[in-house]
Specification:
The structure is a homodimer of 308-residue chains. By secondary structure, chain A is of the alpha/beta class. The radius of gyration of chain A is 20 Å and the shape is globular.
Chain lengths: 308, 308
């Protein structure tokens, strides 16, 4: 390992070399792949790419915890099979409700307050809730190699963005602190907010209505809407990231498209399908197009910062 | 005028002093009004605030020019009274169509191509079209005092954003070059875009469907969606900016809310009502709340850079 290795948690090999080579290329002034600093845009999926997503998306744990907190004020929830399943921990019934059911649960827990109230609720939860397997704060389950990658790119004048199917206002609460990504560089799914003056005070109220789903074909749309330039580097881990990787690599010029493949059952989880996503067609396309695929077990000598 | 005056086009007086005092306050480390650099967010309306908006929004000139260019491919437009009015320069009939008519004209000229094609069309137009009164490029009609203000704020570690009712993709084409504001810091109205693979190439296609109207109550919503923090400084010129100014100044802590009042019929235009907007309730509220109001005629010793 060289002195001053910018990616010490990445083992030497073709994966690490593909990253280093790409960055060398776009930062070599006068070289054939040079990209001006202001156009060095890098986009990162969050769940499964920057932090874990098992046994289910961490935002769902927030939804379930929130429902348990709210339940005493909602005795009627006992009569709704889906809501009751959450309260009794019957995850089988919850899963059977599919994405539609989960969206309904998201709405009753994420709407009906101001944006500032929601940020406070989220901040309190993320500061105290613990992961069922690791018994650690969820923010401790961010991937150390990806943190190094974020910092390495920023040191090379990249602007780093999150582009996630997760809730934009959920992620913004912790993204700056744990990833060094400010709120204005977080793109995610959102519900509608409404501006109103309440008792003389201006407020943005969160409504139980979907505004934007930042997943699949939504990712390039969200990128264009928020950034307005095409990224030159994109990082994902599932089929929900496919279009983001296609968009990033679909232009002449140097680009890096990378998938994190979860192959380490000991240190993290090994899977190709999570409760709400899977890695299938994106992996096939990655092989066909020569995208970089991270084999977590073999490419990373450290997964989490808390490891010895 | 002091040496190294950061705002040389602003005359000495209470307007200029209110800006300087605000910036001194939020940048004085340890002082009661200090704001951390990452929270120094400043938002600027575009039409009538950063550049002129008379005889009508410059983007409308783009719409009308575009229709004239497209007309030979659309002989059927002659049979549509609104479209025909544009082609014959009958602005009275166009104005009678109101906002609804203009939105229709915007859709037929702004949709039906990829985002990259639209950017090229816009770039070509903005590089050649000339203002009817001044016979200058539209980008020459940006206000020199506001340029100085943008630079002064950035020198004090503010992040500057555009928040305009104008089209987000229209403004992004020139905002970086003329204002030093990168695409990812431009917020505006938008139409729906759709991701698709066309002949193996990923593309974002612009559809004739409104996505977001970034005006009035939409401005705080757009700010929250794109930035995720509340600005501490907001600059506008019409009632369409009222809610943005309310949101910016509606919190404890130091803030600057400023309205540009067009009072100079000689160097620019003097008006309180433009074809699609007016300055009425926002001016009343500015006086009640002590917001800063720029009297263009008396507060600016220079309006445009091309003046001697």
């Amino acid at each position: 390992m060289p002195c001053n290795d910018p990616l010490p948690s990445w083992n030497e090999g073709s994966t690490k070399e593909s990253i280093l080579k790409f960055v060398r290329g776009v930062t070599t002034s006068g070289g054939p792949s040079f990209v001006k600093p202001e156009e060095r845009i890098a986009v990162f999926d969050n769940d499964g790419t920057l932090w874990s997503e098992q046994p289910f998306y961490f935002q769902l744990a927030f939804v379930f915890d929130r429902m348990k907190t709210m339940a005493p004020q909602h005795p009627e929830w006992k009569d709704n099979p889906l809501y009751a399943a959450v309260l009794t921990g019957d995850m089988k019934t919850v899963a059977a409700g599919g994405l539609k059911g989960l969206m309904e649960l998201a709405m009753i827990t994420h709407a009906g307050m101001t944006t500032e109230q929601f940020a406070k609720i989220t901040a309190n939860w993320i500061a105290s809730a613990r992961h069922p397997k690791f018994d650690r704060l969820y923010t401790e389950l961010i991937f150390q190699p990806m943190l190094e990658l974020l910092e390495y790119l920023r040191a090379n004048l990249f602007k780093t963005f999150i582009v996630s199917g997760g809730g934009i206002e959920f992620m913004r609460v912790f993204a700056e602190k744990v990833y060094g990504i400010p709120p204005e560089q977080v793109i995610g799914s959102s519900i509608v907010t409404k501006f109103e003056i309440v008792n003389g005070v201006p407020a943005l109220t969160r409504l139980a209505e979907l505004n934007f789903m930042d997943d699949n074909v939504g990712k390039p749309v969200g990128i264009h809407r928020h950034i307005g330039r095409r990224p030159i580097a994109a990082f994902g881990n599932s089929d929900g990231d496919l279009q983001m990787l296609q968009w990033t690599s679909g232009c002449a010029g140097s680009s890096l498209a990378l998938l994190v493949h979860h192959t380490d059952a000991v240190r993290e989880f090994a899977y190709d399908a999570s409760p709400l996503g899977k890695l299938d067609v994106a992996l096939t396309e990655a092989k066909a197009k020569g995208w970089t695929v991270v084999d977590m077990k073999n490419d990373w000598n450290r997964v989490f910062a808390f490891e010895a």
